[in-house]
## 1
Amino acid sequence: MRVVAFTGMPGAGKSEAVAVAKARGVPVVRMGEFVWEETKKRGLELVDANVGLVATEMRQRHGMDYWAQRTCDAVLRDHKDHALVVIDGVRNNEEVETFRHRLGHRFELVAITAPPDLRVERLIKRGRSDDSTTRERVTERDERELGWGIAKSIALADHSIVNEGDLPSFRKAVAELLDRVQSEKH
């Protein structure tokens, strides 16, 4: 099994990269699903402020790699027979270290990057329930994620894809990277 994990600032294109993997039949484990699950369990609405609060609180209470540990458990339990698995949502260095420790040579980190103005435009247009809907809210979310250490996870990536062009070109770049990682021998 090979594991590709996507990291990047909100609106950079991680969801589109995940969509490429899903379209190819690759199982995806989205770290945010665990956060959403905990948020719902507490009876909170799935909006950015609540999701961010729960994500931060659990990291403070159980360690910065809390969500990565949960994700590794799911990957190793539910997807051990797949040739390739994708993880969406790496946010900090501690998570990267956990994935590298628990998944070893099978793990590859991919940074998706895009210019800030383009990311803001995408987030506002996307309109997911936990998205920020104004430039100010996007800036607050960016600051929260930078506080978690996402810049370091981006810097530690094994691969990087810049997403500032058209969607077909980005999707092609993601598909090519997934093919390359899956065909590498370790």
## 2
Amino acid sequence: MKALILAGGQGTRLYPLTLRTPKCLLPIAGKPNILYIIEELVKSGINEIYVSINDKQLKINDFLIGSKANIIIETHENGKLGSIGGLNYAVGKIASDDLLVIGADNFYKGLNINEFIKTIKSGGASIALYELPHKYMVELFGVAELQNGVIASFQEKPSIADAKSQLGSTMIYGLSKEFIKEKLPEYIKNNFNLDTIGSMWQYFAKKEKLGGHVFKGLWADIGSVRAYVELNNKIMSEMKTSRIDESAVVMDGAKINDNVIIEAGCIIGKNCIIGPNTHLMRDTTVGEGSVINGSVIFENVHIGQKAFITNSVIDGNAKIGDRVRINDYSSIGYKSVISDGSLLIKESSVWPFLKANGMIDGNIVQIEEKNDLTNSKYWSGD
């Protein structure tokens, strides 16, 4: 069995973060998400691993150099293939065999890959399913109705009232070689919806015996800032010890709570409170009296005095002024500046290179092509 990790998505729901960093490289408890996937595959005995990216995401290739993964690059010369066309392009580059396919924005623990593989029906495909913990989530994912291990029906993002189950499709698929050679190309040839994989499963659930495999444990899709922050908090809360680099400076009166990562060169001012579930990347400085919890702060960020940041993400080289308050699930773009005394309402964002002040409720958006955004890599140490 070979495995294909699909990492070609643009991550638009995670903007402005993914304007600089592909979503599969966003760190979860200090480790890029794609590494968790690769490690799980290797533990399952799968050593032939491919990662499909597009030619605007070469940072993924740069990051994975020297790893166990082989890279497949979808170029723009192929035109806009859509999610399903991209899948077909990638599998066409791999020698014909049954194939395990995983979306790179999936995080999972507790799935027995070898048991899942057994559910692939002859000539068909199978989907790993996860019981969604909240009913509202059916409107965010595809859901399957399962009968005796076979998917009787598949609904793509149904309303709560119409949903036939809470078994969410995890974007972990098992494809037989016959499905890859015959049925997937046939679907594409007929010009069906090529942008949404869930639409393809709706189609095949009516025609084929799609397998379904329910697993327990943990699964999440980091497709939004909220989902990313919540998953990072969950995994960091399971850390046995905090990780504080010996070069970090923690000044008098600062309190470092449990489950934090503080990298090299960080400076924590007097009377700060850091954590729980907080990751400060290298060379970040936090001014006196500031409070940060449940957040990911990328490299070389400067945070002023008496700032309050909760459950949010600040990208690299940003400057946060004194007395700034950043509320839940907000995101600050690369090299942006937030002026003293500003307030970000819940789920607000400021895009890269912008300066914002006052009360920010919503998104401050401006698209700029700058080489320092294109070339910057938080893990590189530059």
## 3
Amino acid sequence: MRIHRILVPTDFGPASDAALAQARQLAAALGASLHLVHVLEDAQRADALAASLEAALGHETAVLNGPTAPTIVEYATDRAFDLIVMGTHGRTGVAHLLLGSVAEQVVRTAPCPVLTVRERRAPAFLMEAPVIPATAQV
């Protein structure tokens, strides 16, 4: 399979940033073009945002209006992308059940392979406050 066109949906969060970094490396290694898409529910802001993003990021950029996962899949289908690279928050349990997962919906319905990238976080034990043992006074 030859990858010519890579789509990167973004919500501008840390997981999307990690996916964009991975997609840039893949695009460079494969000689593929990179395209970014952001889905908004406010159509009036879409065109202005797309133009400013494309200028700032240096990649073809689209800002779309509609329900996020179906809109991403429709865009990828209509434009024959070979790969979608997108971030995932890695929610599990109740948070996953309540919030769902855009990445999971895209994986299930996309017309092409989907690479999901988790944001890089320090392990939980490194983020907790250090436990300082009490010292015995002599």
## 4
Amino acid sequence: MPPTDENDKTLMFESRFESGNLYLAQKVSDSEYNLLMQNDVNTCGHTQWFFFRVMNTKAGHKVKFNILNYSKPDSLFNYGMKVSIYSDRLAEEKKVGWHKGGEDISYFANGIRKDVLYSSKSFYTATFTYKFKYSGDSIYFAYSQPYSYSELRDDIAGIEADPDRGCFVTTKTLCTTLAGNPCEYLTITSKKKDKDVLDLAKRKGIIITARVHPGETVGSHMMKGVL
């Protein structure tokens, strides 16, 4: 439930939506929160992907977010990469969609040991600050611009329905995911079988694949561009 006091600056967090990921949010103060990510799907404890929404924002309020359970010893956050951000108000009023932002971004070992008894390795923290531009806004923060399964299905359906592209595309199911969703592949080639075109079985092929891990959404956007 949202705070009943209009002066309460406590942020409300949510990640129960498609591609969302946030396990825990702990308030340190009105201006700082410690966060934990869920493990990336189908990994042995790897953490990279975060995607969550915050609400009850106040214009001009600057907040520091500390994501405490990264596992990689280094990150692109140390080399200029910024957080992907989407503001409902900014999109509505200025037609600005996903964009990069955040200030005071850094990534470092935090001294929290992964296994107190059996490991000397520590977790890493990614930290950034953000100054809210609007009161009552919904702000989404993500590791990179999301590309959901629903977006994938819509893009494939759009290609199949396009008369200029669909005539060259055959879609088949390679397998199903652990969640039971079909994992599809597209074969792009002429479907003609006249004398001037090689039989399908004799044509040489090029396999293009992208995005293996949840955080590699940039690979999905690049694949969309290739298609």
